[in-house]
Amino acid sequence: MQFFKIEGFTVDKKMSEENENRKALREKIRKFAVKSDLFNQKLKNKAFYFITDASPDTVSVGAICRDHVEIEKKAADYLDAIGLKLKDVFIEEITLSRLCKMLHIALRNDYINDDDEVLESFELDRLTGGYRGGVAYGENIIDVSSKEEIFKQAERFLAKDSFYPELERVFAGSLPKRATGHPVHYFIQTDDQETCKSMYRLLLSALYQKGRIQSRRYCFVDFAPGDEFSDTVYDCLYKSCSGGAVIVRFSSDDESEDDRANGDRDTIENLCKTMKKHRNRVLTVFCLPRECTRAKDIFLENLGNLSFVELKEEFAYGERASDFLKMIAKENGVRTDKRLFEKLENDTGYLVPDLRAIFDEWYDRKLKNDLYPQYKEVNSVKLEVVKKAPKGNAYDELMEMIGINEAKQMMIKALNYYKAQKIFADSGVKFDRPAMHMIFTGNPGTAKTTVARLFARIMKENGLLSKGNLVEVGRGDIVGKYVGWTAPEIQKKFREANGSVLFIDEAYSLVDDRDGCFGDEAINAIVQEMENHRDDVVVIFAGYPDKMEGFLRKNPGLRSRIAFHIPFADYETGDLCGIAKLIAKKKGLKLSPDALEKMEGIFEAAKNEEDFGNGRYVRNLIEQAKMSLMNRLLKLDIDQLSKDDISTICADDIDVPPFAEKQRKKPIGFSAA
User: Architecture of domain 393-568 in CATH?
Assistant: First the structure.
């Protein structure tokens, strides 16, 4: 199917006079509309011609043709039938979107009765508006180049072994008389989108010149594994491209997961079904990533005995890689130097994105250092990003905390990964947001909840999470009283934690030492929601080390979805003293040397006690010392107290806690005195 715009200058001077007379103008429009209807009726819906606009000097005509026609002759027949003479007629093939605009103008000018009715009669109504019925598509017009220019442009691709031979076959052949159909269709495999577009544009230009396709208009569609779309609308898209081409750009990373593989298969089967139906009227070019073995195999399984030419991007080694870099430099009008080739390794193969990244990095430096040396001292954006410290004071609070080195390193690693994504986004390296779910293991008072709260704030302040709240839950918050109640509660909590951290304390309490009960239902639901919300919720499980291991064994999928296991060890005496000084500092206090020495002895004894509270114990001790300090100060001459007197905790302010003595078990029965 082809769409045309026909435009020319009026010859009849009487038209200019009629345009100046409103009544005569209306009569002229009515006559053109009636004569157009009569002409189109004879075409029996094989084509449709209409006037879009008629000014005193020019006339614009639109045309829809189901089959390839000699448009110059047909346009002349139409103009003759409606009694309109034009000179210097210009005819161009146009896209469907431009045709729809012309129909709308024709309706507004009363040259047609209903533009929607026209589109519906050619089954084009489902495609108007750019997106209808689950098929998003684009369209373009082939840029016709000479054979010499096509081969010259083909040198820009690393596909000489496959692309050159196919171009030679296209130009060597001749079109058989009265034959319709395509001897072959195409696979293009490359990871570089610009290379892919340039290759199929050159290919279509060559095929159009040789008459293998009759329409300069082609459509392109993008599909991913599991995409749902309307078969009816997709079929209409192919019908609209009769005599032309459809470019199917299929993205797949060849993941091996079963659900992803099934998504691949369903989508590909539907694509191939429609393609085979229209194979003789529409040329199809399938565009796939370079390494896409599994998805390509599914295509081949569903394409029967059709023949395909594979145009695959090749690796460039050694001299060929150097020549490609020289070609890019020549296109940019810059002379090469040895620094451009320093990163090339003789035994390494390079694809187009790799070489372009090497050139771009070199060219950026050359522009600043050699061509515009006055900007040599200005740091690059990437360097500024690398040097820039993490945002927000939550990060500073975390780094200031005593101990917890594993937690600090994990957060630094996550922030650096996110920073690297921004820095190397234009290098062709593919990054995905990693799952950030975690397990915190440690005894009470080892700062698990505090660190979780800081993590949430840090990820919000640095763009890893959108909200950065901490939603704390326990067994009572998510395990329902009856079967079937738990999953909805968990879904509700995940929605509440959207863009934030969901902190599940004492997570092992969910299983409650019983198999097949509500706790198992809770874990299964949590695993499902972790997968559903891997990009917008971070789940942190917390609890005692030994009990957490049993918790992980409850569900095979749970352990694999947790990226980070962070231990929170009990604090040593020196760490406890550091925590004491930090807590005191935040309260505007300080510890005297004798107070610190006394605390050290207390901590050394206390950390051997059962249920020692780690940081909580220190916090309580400081709170009690602060109260003792205030009581001591009230007994002194207040007017004589200095700022240091008021803010310094001394040894006398610290009470030694009475540690419980272990009771000796008295023997049962009698014993000798």
Answer: 3-Layer(aba) Sandwich (3.40)
